[in-house]
Amino acid sequence: MFVGNNFDTAIYDVSIPCNYRCIYCRNDWQNPENTAQPPFEKIKPIIDKFYDLGIKKIIFTGGEFFTVSYWQELLAYTKKKGFAVWIVTNAALIEPAYIPFLEKHVEKINVSFHSADKKLYQKIMGVRDKSIFDKVIRNLEKLGESKIRLGIFFSPLRSNFRQFYDTIRFLKESGVDISQVSLNRIIPTQHTLAYFEDEQPLSYFEHKVLIEQLIRINRELHIDAYAEAYPLCFLKTIIADDELLKKINQPCIVGRRAIAVNNNGTLKLCPATAFAISAPISETARPLQTNSTLDDFNEEKWRNNHCISCAYWQDCLGGCHASTGKIYSDDALIIDDEIEFKEDIENTFFDLLVNLYKPFLSTSFKNAHIRYTVLSKYKDSYPIGIIAVKKTRSNANFLEIALVPGLKEKYYSFLILQKLIGNHSIEKYGWTAHKANLPSIKLLEKLDGGFYQDTVKNKKRIEAEGFFRVNGPVPPKMKAALKELIPQAGEKFKLWLREFDERKKEKQALKNYLEGYKP
Questions:
Q1: Its pTM surpasses 0.85
Q2: I need a surface site. Which of 94, 193, 258, 331 has the fewest CB within 10 A?
């Protein structure tokens, strides 16, 4: 569908400098090469080459577009060439006097805006000037009133991913007329890797929260909002409505119908990276037809086996091929397995897990009213874990989950809990965790849950108790109590791991059971 020479869009990093210093930016601003903008004479041959290649639309990115001193001359030149023009900007340098000129030369402007909280906006965007936020809001209002279509780019981080919906609602209530919202993941590449040393990339759980907010933006705010380059197999774990799924899905067409280009004219396979895969296109006779990396990419031999047989490939294109920071690879969010629940749990299997993970699991869950042995549909022929829910005398539902060693914990925990929540109409799940059980505590955090403060502070208690809600957060005090527990749990968990490493008999017993398992 997208393979071949049918390239109609160029995403071009025309600007190098930027007036912002976003904390996740891939550019190293200590490098002088990232602060000098080439003259227009260096840019024109690249624009001319786009014309020769049959490109119809140019999306100008950066850097920051409006740091380019000759931006008006550039737009006039591209307009004269007949290109449709879009711009990606932070909108801080736009002046009201620019709007009439922009209306004549630009079809759409996408503005990066990542928080409605002024302090957090300044932190994420790396700006100190407190007046910038209000200026950007005024500029968004003016752009929304103009003939130009206004889009909002939201990039999720740990500090703002729960604010996605509130950020767009704030803009709408501020009088900003938005035509489209795009949810754009951060790519762990180049200088961004330094950011991710301190802040882990978002996982399945956080992206689920983002997609749920994106659905609300569509339904409640009546603004078209899209999940940019998310794999459909992941989206389908959250969205059952096929029509909604089709509406919000926005596959990545770079390398298929669009080309991404560095400032110097070298090709790349992702606009969010700078991995050059060619010489400057202005110096190459047939840069698209003779590029071996483009050819290899479109042959699709690199695809996940699950993708090869997927009926949705043409609607999905595998999600984001740069999500792991490589030139192309499987999307980090691909769901290539399914979970199956088998009613009840064999006592032998339960006891083996209890012995292996002691003192973390409770034998009381043997009598839980909901008990499942967890099976993998495509990966393994033996049980991969258990999940149980027991009802207390006060009618509360407490949950326990355990996986066999060696699995991708976040991945399978996400799939198992999604299935459990989908199968049962329970709104609130109780949670107990041994104060050394860091994985359990961190999993509750991902579920937006928390612990009662007194159970955390009470030094005589070996377990903390709390809960999570299927829809909605717990009180802030409970979240704070959970965060307070994490450091001490981390230290205790290190000690527990030393003991766990020595449990050779328990590990061998479990291995024997799994190898001899017969469905």
A1: yes
A2: 193
List all residues 6 or more positions away from 94 whose beta carbon is below 8 Å from its beta carbon: 66, 102, 139, 142, 143
Residue 22 pLDDT > 70, yes or no?
Answer: yes
What is the tally of helices (H) and strands (E) in the chain?
19, 17
Residue type, 486: I
Q: What is the distance between the alpha carbons of residues 280 and 264, in angstroms, rounded to a whole number?
A: 6
> pLDDT tens digits, residue range 142-196?
999 999 999 999 999 999 999 999 999 999 999 999 999 999 999 998 889 889 9
Walk across the sheet containing 258-261 and list its strands.
249-250, 225-228, 180-183, 149-154, 108-112, 84-89, 57-61, 9-13, 258-261, 267-268
Q: Is the CB of residue 468 less than 8 Å from the CB of residue 429? A: yes
Judged by DSSP in three states, 487 sits in helix
Altogether, the residues listed in the chain come to a count of 519
Q: Are 88 and 65 in contact (CB under 8 A)?
A: yes
Residue 499: both structure tokens together: 């003991």
Q: How far apart are CA 154 and CA 414, in angstroms?
A: 24
Give the pLDDT of residue 250. 93
- In sign, the C-alpha dihedral spanning 300, 306, 307, 308 is positive
**Contact indicator for 202, 156 with CB cutoff of 8 Å:** yes
Q: Which residue from 155, 184, 194, 267 is spatially nearest to 28, judged by alpha carbons?
A: 194
Report pLDDT for 408: 93
Largest CA distance in the chain: 78
- Residue 249: DSSP 8-state: E
What are the tokens at 251? Answer: 């596959």
Residue with tokens 């737009």: 75
d(C-alpha 389, C-alpha 397), whole Å? 6
Which candidate, 253, 248, 295, 290, places its Cα nearest to that of 270? 253
The runs of H, that is alpha helices, within 346-437 are: 347-357, 409-423
DSSP code at position 161 = G
